[in-house]
Amino acid sequence: MAEGPWTTEVRYVTGAHKGETSRAEACRPAHKRSASGTRTALRAAAAFRFGKYGYEGTSVRDIAGDVGVDAALVYRYFGSKEALFNDVSGTGKIFEPLLSEPVEAIPDWFCALLMGPPREGDFPHPVLSVLRSSGRDEAVARLRADFTEVFSQRLAARLGGPDADLRAELLAAWMLGTSLMRSEIRPPALAAAPDATLERYLRAGIEVLLGPAPGESEETAGAEGEGHCVCGNRPDAG
């Protein structure tokens, strides 16, 4: 089963914080990284630390130490701690692949993203890097902007029909809420649900949101708005 996009590249990065032993040290490759590989490793370490400890609880030295490079290299590649935070806390690029999927394949995409048992040591949920960073109002605003662009605008335009923007945002809310519950909160029923059962419910809800509200049409909506009883418009109504 496919894993979430935030788990594949960075699971090995745990870092050392307040006495913790870094597993990243043991998993660090012996050969010298390319500049691109070092940037990727720094992003992974930063994403983990910001997600787990928040902005204030993470230092550039910690991030560099996880990767085995000098802190000066972080500034060279990213400019500042804040710029690195902004780089890894943006979610727009995570959901970009969704926009290239045919609408009928969206349930497959979401299920692949959400399925699979949660495991200890997985990379923290991406939104936690914002929620755990007090005073990062600009990051919350950017998170909102990312979701507005991907879901409220671009995905909604592809869905069409009544309340397309609301339906697209509900898809985002359900996806984020479900992934956060499964990866971080882990309530017993959701954590123990068989994949087939979970997928059945996920698909049912996603497919409802991909189309207009069941049983509603512009004609019936208009009739209700004028205060008429819809049943009274039937030819056989008395």
UniProtKB/TrEMBL annotation:
Residues 213-238 are annotated as: Disordered. Keywords: DNA-binding. It comes from the Bacteria. InterPro entries: Homeodomain-like_sf, HTH-type_TetR-like_transc_reg, HTH_TetR, Tet_transcr_reg_TetR-rel_C_sf, TetR_C_16. Residues 59-78 bind DNA. This is TetR/AcrR family transcriptional regulator. The lineage of its organism: Bacteria, Bacillati, Actinomycetota, Actinomycetes, Kitasatosporales. Residues 36-96 form the HTH tetR-type domain.
